[in-house]
Amino acid sequence: MIDHDARRLLMRVFVLLLMFGAIETKGQTLPATKNLGLGNIGGVTKGVHSIGYNPAGIASIERPVLSALYSEYFFSTNTQSLTGKIAYPAGFLNFGTYVHYYRFKDFYQTLSTGLTLAKSLSKDFAVGLSTNYHLINLATDLQRNHFSFDVGAQYALSQLASIGLSASHLRLTTTANNPSSQPIHLRLGSSYIFTQQVVLLTEISYSEQVDFAFGTEYLPMSWLAVRGGISVNPFMQYVGVGVITKKFNFDIATSHHPQLGYSPQISIDYRF
Questions:
Q1: I want to staple 152 with a disulfide (CB 3.0 to 4.6 A). Which of 76, 160, 166, 205 is the partner?
Q2: Considering the entire predicted model, what is its pTM?
Q3: Tens of pLDDT, residues 65-89
Q4: In whole angstroms, what is the distance from residue 132 CA to residue 149 CA?
């Protein structure tokens, strides 16, 4: 039999291993506060925050958008990120770019940047492509860098229903000296406008394991959005609130991991 102290030690080791795995994964993953409140669903969502989820989502943007985000991961772990995103409609093609800085104390830091291109091939169908550069610094003075690619498509089945498919963190090559620390992430999402005030979203995804998420957005007033969601692998809960104005969007959201706790985010978007 394992005594109480040994059991506590094993649990701490398990949580530490889990935390470091999550930290390395999140370091190269772009945050999006609205998406987080919806169960971290992103394959079918549109707008500037589709950068990092499905690049086809910026094809719907009609005005330039500037966004700034701050994320705190797993309270009391001293893990944060800062992210800036820009999306710009250029008529025949929409452009997007971002800069993302992530740090876990002084042990692990990443700096990522990228360029996104998206185009509507018809009023119902859009495609997108992102190229990303990641620079990773470790406390051992070891530095790694690599390029990755994201591709995606979105299709409107009707005025009420849409689907989206994306593949993120694609690599052309992987070597023993510079292994890919970020697994490929596949997303297949759908959205349905249930009423003028309620939108329902679902997503099945794969990134080393299959996950399913469900999210909903409720607009009790035209300027206020209340969001919530769950995902099953692991079982996580999400909640968020957004304030919508003519020029600005202000969003806050948090997720809850069963072992690692809460990870809140805050963002502000400005439409020119």
A1: 166
A2: 0.86
A3: 999 999 998 876 788 999 999 999 9
A4: 6
* 189 closest CA partner among 240, 239, 241, 231: 231
Helix (H, G, I), strand (E, B) or coil at 17: helix
Cα–Cα distances in angstroms (integers) from residue 241 to residues 35, 121, 265, 267, in the given order: 11, 33, 11, 11
What is the rounded average pLDDT for all residues in the chain? 88
Q: Are 164 and 59 in contact, with CB atoms under 8 Å apart?
A: no
In the 8-state DSSP scheme, what is residue 18? H
Residue in 40, 2, 25 with CA at minimum distance from that of residue 189: 40
Rounded Cα distance between 135 and 112, Å, is 6
d(Cα 229, Cα 32) in Å, to the nearest integer?
A: 14
Q: 89-99: per-residue pLDDT in tens?
A: 998 899 999 99
Contact, 98 vs 51, CB < 8 A?
yes
What is the topology classification, in CATH, of domain 4-271? Porin (2.40.160)
- pLDDT for the residue 5: 54
47: which DSSP letter?
S
Are 119 and 125 in contact, with CB atoms under 8 Å apart? no
